[in-house]
Amino acid sequence: MGVRLGFSTGCLYRSGLSEVGRLNFLRDIGCRTVELGFVKFKDFIGVEFWKLRASDLRGFDYVSLHAPVSNYGFNGDTVEIFQQINWLNSWRPLDLVVFHPDTVEDFSIFRKAEFKFAFENMDKRKKTFKSVKDMAELAGQFEDFKMVLDVNHALTNDPTLALTAEFYKELGDKIAQIHLSGYAGYHEPLFQTQQAEIIKSIRNPNVPIIVEGVLKPEEVTMERDYILKVLGED
Fold it and tell me: How high is the pLDDT of residue 234?
């Protein structure tokens, strides 16, 4: 299987394009792997989410969703978020729904989930779920645990990238998706930072790779081409 490289719609949040417009743009440049980026709760309950229709996701072979950051547990916000995920999942089964674990109040709520989910390792600004130990302990709570390895987040905690290698060693069979971007303080384009070592730290390029660097529309293909060149897929 070749590299399944795609983009988060959140990459284009500064472009002025709507969520549907971002999807159309990515499809038009030949992207077949995509993540719906709704990290902020206000965006997920807003009009952009409810404008989505099945036709907007046609042509994409892999569709994941970055769920909003929230205090997941037995509360109203969680009920509302899960209902909306289930609505989307009912007409386009999602390949994965990604959650930040550091704000979860009760992980048992996920045992009732009707969709495929995974938890993402956190960056150095967070207090928990940055280490292999934390993620491994979380894995022990679920029979079919899945993880999204954010190599940018791992780099912020360990610039040597040894932490990324440790994640692969201890949890490699649990990694269902990659989040990829450069790092110069946030989520920068790799074609600008030229941090080929971040890309090369990905040990299983057959797992879907979602690019999260903030990009202008005209930079998307430049980012794609740079990443594929480093991966030897150009």
Answer: 57
CATH code, 210: 3.20.20.150
Give the separation between CA 70 and CA 39, rounded to whole angstroms. Answer: 9
Are residues 174 and 145 in contact, defined by beta-carbon separation less than 8 angstroms?
A: yes
- How many other CB atoms are found less than 10 A from the CB of residue 145? 18
Q: Which domain holds residue 185?
A: 5-230
Number of domain units in the chain: 1
- pLDDT value of position 44: 85
pLDDT tens sequence across 184-193: 988 999 999 9
Residue 31: both structure tokens together = 């992207």
Per DSSP, the three-state class of 208 is coil
Distance of alpha carbon 9 from alpha carbon 70, whole angstroms? 20
Strand segments (E) across 17-94 = 33-37, 62-66
With contact defined as beta carbons under 8 Å apart, do 72 and 98 qualify?
A: no
3-class secondary structure, 169 = helix
Distance CA 69, CA 192 (A): 28
Q: Under a CB-based contact definition with an 8 Å cutoff, are residues 211 and 223 in contact?
A: yes
Mean pLDDT by 10 residues, the chain (234 residues): 90 95 97 95 84 95 96 96 95 97 97 96 97 98 97 97 98 98 94 97 94 97 97 79
- Which residue, chain included where needed, has tokens 């190599």? 151
Contact criterion met (CB below 8 Å) for 24 and 18: no
pLDDT, tens only, 200-220: 999 998 899 999 999 999 999
